[in-house]
Write a structure and sequence with these properties.
By secondary structure, the protein is an alpha+beta fold. It has one domain. Helices cover 46% and strands 17% of the residues. The termini are far apart.
C-alpha cells in the first residue's frame, strides 16, 4: 500500500461514459434533423424572392425603354443595361413586341418571370 489514504478506492479517470456520448450524439442528431429542412426552406424562398426582385428591376428599365422608343420591339439585355447599368445579372428578355414584353431572371436555380407592361413578378412562365 503505497498510496495515500485519501486516494484509496477512488477511480477518477475524468472521462465520459459511452452512454453519455451516445445521448449527446442523439440530441445533436435531432437538432440537425430539425434545423436543416428549415434552413433549406429559407434558402429556397430567399432565392425565389431575389430572382423576383431582379426581374422587377429589369421591368423598370423596360418601361424606360418604351418611354424612349414608343415600343418594346428590339429590346434586349444590352439595351436594358444601357438604361440601367446596375441591373442585376441573370436577367434575359424572352419576348419583346410592339406593346408587350416578357422578362425572366434566374438566381440559384429559381426562375422569375414578368409580363409587361403592368405585370407582376411570378414563378409561372410567360404564355
Amino acid at each position: 500500500m503505497t498510496q495515500a489514504p485519501a486516494t484509496l478506492g477512488r477511480n477518477d479517470d475524468g472521462g465520459f461514459t459511452l452512454i453519455e456520448l451516445l445521448v449527446v450524439l442523439v440530441i445533436v442528431g435531432i437538432l440537425i434533423a430539425i434545423a436543416v429542412p428549415s434552413y433549406l426552406g429559407f434558402s429556397d424562398r430567399a432565392s425565389s424572392r431575389s430572382a423576383q426582385a431582379n426581374v422587377r428591376s429589369a421591368a423598370t428599365a423596360a418601361e424606360a425603354y418604351y418611354v424612349d422608343n414608343g415600343y418594346y420591339t428590339g429590346m434586349d439585355v444590352a439595351a436594358l443595361r444601357a438604361i440601367d447599368a446596375g441591373m442585376a445579372g441573370g436577367v434575359s428578355v424572352i419576348s419583346a413586341g410592339a406593346s408587350q414584353y416578357c422578362l425572366t431572371a434566374t438566381l440559384y436555380g429559381k426562375d422569375a418571370y414578368f409580363r409587361g407592361p403592368g405585370g407582376v413578378a411570378t414563378s409561372a412562365a410567360c404564355t
